[in-house]
Design brief:
about 150 residues; alpha+beta; OB fold (Dihydrolipoamide Acetyltransferase, E2P); 6-stranded antiparallel β-sheet
């Protein structure tokens, strides 16, 4: 004995429903692709082409917070609980680092090979970093008056 059909759709209507579902799925997929194409590109990928060398005062006043101040202004390297540039921060010997508080708080002179997010002064990626003698920044006329404040003085 053949069981009775339990739904109201007739066999002739099934292909139309399947076609309708297929059309909706294709429209949804197209909308998703359009949304992705219109989204801003990955900032790191976009910034990679704009690699530049910047030298100045590398200031790390508190954990997770760091900036580089050069002739063009202040570049955000990291903000605690927020943006952090990819890559390693410069390493400083004690002769090249001015301690300004507890732990690692302080500043030094450094050069970063870096890329920034377009239209901002936010460092996206540090390709390489090297410390410089403090005198390098102190004697640079473009950095006059820009040495970070030392609250321990």
């Amino acid at each position: 004995m053949i069981p009775a059909m339990t739904h109201s759709a007739s066999p002739a209507r099934r292909p139309r429903t399947t076609t309708r579902l297929l059309i909706h799925a294709l429209l949804w997929a197209g909308a998703c692709q359009f949304a992705v194409a219109g989204a801003p590109p990955n900032a790191t990928a976009a910034a990679t082409a704009a690699t530049q060398n910047r030298c100045g005062w590398f200031d790390n006043p508190t954990p997770g917070n760091a900036t580089l101040v050069d002739k063009d202004g202040e570049w955000t390297v990291g903000e605690q609980g927020g943006h952090q540039a990819e890559g390693k921060w410069p390493a400083f010997s004690s002769a090249r680092w001015v301690q300004t508080g507890n732990g690692s708080a302080g500043y030094g002179c450094a050069c970063l090979k870096m890329s920034a997010r377009p239209g901002t002064q936010e460092v996206a990626k540090i390709v390489s970093a090297r410390s410089q003698p403090l005198a390098t920044c102190r004697n640079d006329k473009a950095l006059a008056g820009k040495e970070p404040e030392n609250p321990l003085k």
